[in-house]
Amino acid sequence: MKSSRIPGFYNLSVEQRRDLLKKELDFSAEELSSLYIKEPLSTETADKMIENVIGTFQLPFGLGLNFLINGKDYVIPMVIEEASVVASASHIAKIVRSAGGFHTEATERVMIGQIQVVGCSDFHAAKQAILNEKEVLINAANAAYPSIVSRGGGAEDLDVRILNEDSDSSYGKMLVVHMYINTCDAMGANIINTMVESVAPIVEEITNGKVYLRILSNYADKCLARARCVIPPELLSTGDYSGEEVRDGVIHAYEFAASDPYRAVTHNKGIMNGIDPVVIATGNDWRAVEAGSHAYAARHGSYGSMTTWSKDQAGNLVGEIELPMSIGTVGGATRVHPLAELSLSLMSIESAKELAQVIVAVGLAQNLGALKALATDGIQKGHMALHSRSVAIAAGASGEMIDIIAEKLIEEKEIRVGKAKELVEEYTK
Ligand code: NDP
């Protein structure tokens, strides 16, 4: 990949942007071919993916630019319907790039499979019995999915917890087995579910209990990705605001989110504005990532910020994010949707571990974009200007009229559908 810093990309036409990807970034016409197909995900394929299909549903596919992560350039595929997200991510990535880029890391890709056991006569004895037969259970799980073992993954360990030990209700008392499974480059839901279902009868035999649920946990707290950036204040100055003022505003904004769930939910929604578009573009399960991320934000006992922002001794702004990232570069829809395949090749992604790190870096960038705007001019100035085109379309504008009406809305500082309708009427008279 050549540099992801592509000045003026925003001002090009869609055709010119595609040409530039070929000429400047060395993507072949064949690699980009799915961009030109009218229905990239065919109705026939869609009909095999889910039930009761009547068609497909398209969303805008944009590129987050300027990303430098662990010294590697990335153009980031982002699929999202909301204006200003891609622009904001690219803006922050450009600042962070000047500060050396994002630094990221990830744990091994260990996911959790849960087995619920109820009705044991002695839960402590049952727990010990499972721990005594750990090897047997791990071997049985691996025998149920040998191909993941030959890829270097598979069940590695297990743990047992007793829940609601003192509960009066026999429904509440249970044993939960956690099987730790390395799913390599897959998200792993099917791998894990196959494994835990296959060992359930052995668990029943060992515990003399009854197994009910056997399924992965989306709280993937052993499959984490982290990103960090350190930004000198001079790179943060904007308009009338000094870099120090922006830095302090960002830290105050973070402290607000860290202390108040009402703010944290919105703060984290802004982070998911960056994360979801990449998860979707790569054909991954965004509900799994959403659920795991929000749960992780509450791991200290109350719901808080997914990021932290602080000042180091030199006065730099330091941003960090750590989230469970149960995504894959194989499996699910990653190799079924042609644009998901293209997304992976746009980033030259080698592994799920690498993809997880890219995704959290985009989340961190998106968070800073929102906090920087909120702590200075407010979010509406930039957002509404970009939103004006959607407003124009909603009011019935089409073709060249869209930009004309959008500009007029900005000029008149009235970015509303009602106003846009008046302008469309005037224009079409
Ligand atoms: P798949 O069932 O498609 O399995 C991935 C397969 O890819 C592996 O079994 C493996 O098969 C093959 N593979 C090829 N190369 C690799 C590699 N390098 N690393 C790992 N596997 C490789 O996908 P997942 O098990 O990942 O399941 C994901 C899907 O499950 C998603 O669509 C998700 O929406 C869905 N799901 C999610 C749930 C949840 O989140 N709660 C619940 C149920 C389903 P082989 O080795 O045989 O080639």
Bound molecules: NADPH dihydro-nicotinamide-adenine-dinucleotide phosphate
Beta content comes to 15-25%
CATH topology of the largest domain: 3-hydroxy-3-methylglutaryl-coenzyme A Reductase, Chain A, domain 2
User: What's the shape?
Assistant: globular
Determine the N-to-C terminus distance.
50 Å
CATH architecture of the largest domain: Alpha-Beta Complex
- What's the SSE pattern? HHEEHEEHHHEEHEEHHHEEHHHHH
Key features of this structure:
10 strands; single chain; 3 domains; 18% strand; binds NADPH dihydro-nicotinamide-adenine-dinucleotide phosphate; 429 residues; Alpha-Beta Plaits; globular; 3-hydroxy-3-methylglutaryl-coenzyme A Reductase, Chain A, domain 2; alpha+beta; 15 helices; four-stranded antiparallel β-sheet
How would you portray this structure in words?
The chain folds into 3 domains: 9-107 and 224-377, 3-hydroxy-3-methylglutaryl-coenzyme A Reductase, Chain A, domain 2; 110-217, Alpha-Beta Plaits, CATH 3.30.70; 382-427, no CATH class. It has helices at residues 14-25, 43-49, 85-98, 123-132, 134-144, 146-150, 189-207, 243-259, 261-281, 286-296, 338-346, 352-374, 380-394, 401-411, 417-428; strands spanning 61-69, 72-79, 103-106, 110-118, 154-163, 174-182, 210-217, 224-231, 307-311, 317-324. The protein is globular and about 80 Å long. α8 (243-259) crosses α12, α9 runs antiparallel to α10 and α9 crosses α12. With 429 residues, the chain is α+β, with helices and mostly antiparallel strands. 46% of the residues lie in helices and 18% in strands. The N and C termini lie far apart (50 Å). Bound molecules: NADPH dihydro-nicotinamide-adenine-dinucleotide phosphate. NADPH dihydro-nicotinamide-adenine-dinucleotide phosphate is lined by residues 147-148, 151, 183-191, 216, 218, 285, 288, 328, 330-333.
